[in-house]
Amino acid sequence: MPAAGKRRAPTAGIAVAQLYEDWSSPVRGSLKFRDAAEAGMRGSVYAAGSRRDIKQKLGLVELDHPDVWASPVDALTQPVIFGVYEELVARRGLSQARSAIAWLSVMFSWGRKRGKFTFLLNQGQNPCKELGMSPPPPRIRFGTRAEINALIAAADKLGWPEIGDMIVLGVWTGQRQADRLQMVDKGTLAGRRVFRQAKTGAIVAVMESPELTNRLKASAERRRAAEIVNPRVILDETSWQPYPDDGDRYRKRFAQVRTEAGKSTPSLIGKGKQDVQPFFEADLRDTSVTWQALAGATVPEIVAITGHTLESATRILKHYLAKHPEMADAAIAKMIEWYDGDGETEIGL
């Protein structure tokens, strides 16, 4: 541990390890770990993916810093936590370190509100706060038409057409993975395809693209042939049951689909081009935002479809489109059209 992280003698009180057990308990812990229906907090509990991430990231603290994990929370100071952060960066990378400290901070905040400790040696302040952690570099990745087509073809080839449907849904609705897995088809209304989220009850209504129409028709035909009636848009067609909520089965299949697609389109697995990053399932949502922007959609139009906030959509476009040649071409084309139309530069004339 760096000199800045030198620890004082531990004080009495609840240890970090016990705090984690208390916080994450589905019975006595934070409401965010409760069953959504039981807690009456639909849409306000941690999703299965978040719970896995919490366990994995805090597991790094337990593994790399067992003395901190066993220490009373009241014995921890900001210099101690900063030392943990710096060593996690060196061993695990910036992204993992930031996430671990962020979850540690959330857990500490919950424990403080429950009166389990007072941050005695840190002047009553959460020692995870204001560490000045370095921001992660932006991940700039969206799918090309060739990549998306390769993924869909690979899913169909492997006998998982519903994975292809998920890919099309991701691009043409911009919805999150968990929401797509839980979508219920409510039919069409005023020329729009209407979906309802099975868990949250949120309604998504989008004008149906030909690509999405064709996938939904093919899915309906497969279900008719198998005599399956189910309102869910996505079913595991090997069992005709919904994919488990933890997402593990779907993620593993998508990974296999990407590997298969990578044989013909190596950029999907981060090969074949200089500095290209592998394509992840979460990139489908950003692909939707990017394609809509390239087609000329405004930020308010995009967020009306995808559910992003204005800030998050703008951030995506800043990273993805700032150097995109089509955007630069469009800007100059609009300027030429304005100029050729005797556009005026004087205010009030």
Description:
By secondary structure, this protein is mainly alpha-helical. It has two domains: 3-122, DNA polymerase, domain 1 (Orthogonal Bundle), CATH 1.10.150; 145-307, Orthogonal Bundle (hpI Integrase, Chain A), CATH 1.10.443. Helix content is 52%, strand content 5%. The chain is built from 15 helices and three strands. It has helices spanning 16-23, 36-39, 48-64, 66-70, 78-92, 94-113, 145-157, 161-173, 177-181, 210-226, 248-262, 283-294, 299-306, 310-321, 325-340, and strands at 183-189, 192-197, 203-207. A three-stranded antiparallel sheet has the order 1-2-3. Strand 1 and strand 2 (192-197) form a beta hairpin. Helix 8 (161-173) crosses helix 12, helix 12 runs antiparallel to helix 13 and helix 12 (283-294) crosses helix 14 (310-321). The model is unreliable at 1-10 (pLDDT under 50).
Lay out the secondary structure.
Blueprint: H1 16-23, H2 36-39, H3 48-64, H4 66-70, H5 78-92, H6 94-113, H7 145-157, H8 161-173, H9 177-181, E1 183-189, E2 192-197, E3 203-207, H10 210-226, H11 248-262, H12 283-294, H13 299-306, H14 310-321, H15 325-340
Antiparallel strand pairs: 1-2, 2-3
Helix pairs in contact: 3-6, 5-6, 7-8, 7-11, 8-10, 8-12, 12-13, 12-14
Can you tell me the CATH topology of the largest domain?
hpI Integrase, Chain A
CATH architecture of the largest domain: Orthogonal Bundle
Number of structural units classed as domains: 2
The helix/strand series, from N terminus to C terminus, equals HHHHHHHHHEEEHHHHHH
The rounded distance between the terminal residues' Cα atoms is 68 Å
Estimated share of beta-strand residues: 5-15%
What is the number of beta strands?
A: 3
